[in-house]
């Protein structure tokens, strides 16, 4: 039974590092609480494979749940067991009130994941106090009132515009899951330039901190659209069941490989056709929602079991795609987890691409669509590669088959989805970049990383937790919000 919270020797080292970075030394259970809070800010549950149940660890840490969450305290006001059990039950998709062992195991996983995130996000040279304030202990009372109405926010936006000399008239208001969109009529054409120059001042006047207002030209003359981010306490979580019906819509029926990434900023389903992409590159740091994005793609591809493509899943950490084992259309019936096996599997796809070209030539077809019309018994193939940066570090030659596929596999009906936590020039080199025009940027740390993904900045100012910029081939960059995918949603497609 996992009645205590056990941590490894390496996790103890993280606690000591965090303690030393604070202005005054913190005890280990206080840091564990910070880690728990950070993990609970993330949309997906921590992986049981990545954070398996631990017993006592030599050189590690042992915490009693009483120290962590007040479990068993005589004073009921200091015992938060039921609150945490309810939250973790939602994450796990199971009733943890009925199983104390599963509850403590889930609690331990969240603490361990939170420590890993703290260790990755906080750099020694940065101010730990500021990091904790901004990321974990942000004072919601200093933000815009979470109960503020759209009309109240609109009045504050109008006043902020007046402070920079723009006497605009509010035309309409639309409320999305995380942003509120305001449409204004500008009295003068020059007001648009004045508005853009004063963009940061508007954010400051609204108390938005690092969050940025998006400004775009409206559909009619002298109109402008402002997308204003709201406090996270007012966000509406978009779950996979909320948007899955979009894959049965008339718009999706016209697509060869429809994918629902989440919603637009106004809450409408965000659909793309992977066959038209024809490949995707996805980048985002820890906690950005990259994993949720990948799961949304996989669930979309498997929504229609008759038309579902064959899948090659490459998962170097051996945990992200574990839930898809046994999927009927999964090549090899198992995700590929080693760099050597990934290299072989991708070269096999190159061979399949060339075999299909021979079939097309015999049929007098130019691509897979014409070949299918002429009776070819082929299915599209989608290769989803997670942690591309790790693969390149361990087997650089993997770049060769990926480039071949990116250059020539579209007509063969073979498509790539490549994802990484480290969007760098080495991870997304020039030949790949030039042949993968469709990109998804989730939150990144630096402007340079945003430019690697999108060829422009902006992703460093996203809100995290699934907030994304989507650059689809031949179209302008659009903003969207990813959906939350639970383990039960993944299990559903295996039935």
Q: What would your notes on this structure say?
A:
- Helices cover 38% and strands 16% of the residues.
- With 495 residues, the chain is α/β, with parallel strands linked by helices.
- The protein has helices spanning 9-21, 28-40, 65-69, 81-92, 100-121, 128-135, 150-163, 190-197, 199-205, 240-243, 250-253, 290-301, 339-363, 368-373, 388-394, 399-408, 430-435, 447-454, 487-492; strands at 5-7, 61-63, 169-175, 179-185, 214-217, 223-229, 258-264, 269-273, 280-283, 310-314, 381-385, 414-420, 438-441, 467-471, 478-482.
- It has 3 domains: 5-138, no CATH class; 145-234, Threonyl-tRNA Synthetase, Chain A, domain 2, CATH 3.30.980; 240-492, Rossmann fold.
- Residues 267-451 form the FtsK domain.
- Pfam families: DndE (PF08870), FtsK_SpoIIIE (PF01580).
Q: What name does CATH use for the topology of the largest domain?
A: Rossmann fold
For the termini, the CA-CA separation is 31 Å
- Gyration radius over CA: 24 Å
Number of separate helices: 19
Task: Say which CATH homologous superfamily of the largest domain is assigned.
Answer: P-loop containing nucleotide triphosphate hydrolases
Poorly predicted regions are 139-146
CATH class of the largest domain: Alpha Beta
Please identify the structural class as seen in this structure. Answer: alpha/beta
Largest sheet: 9 strands, mixed
The strand line-up of the biggest sheet is 8-7-15-14-13-9-12-11-10
β content, as a range? 15-25%
Number of domains: 3
The CATH architecture of the largest domain can be given as: 3-Layer(aba) Sandwich
Q: How many strands?
A: 15
Helix coverage percent = 25-40%
Overall shape: globular
Query: Average pLDDT across residues?
Result: 88
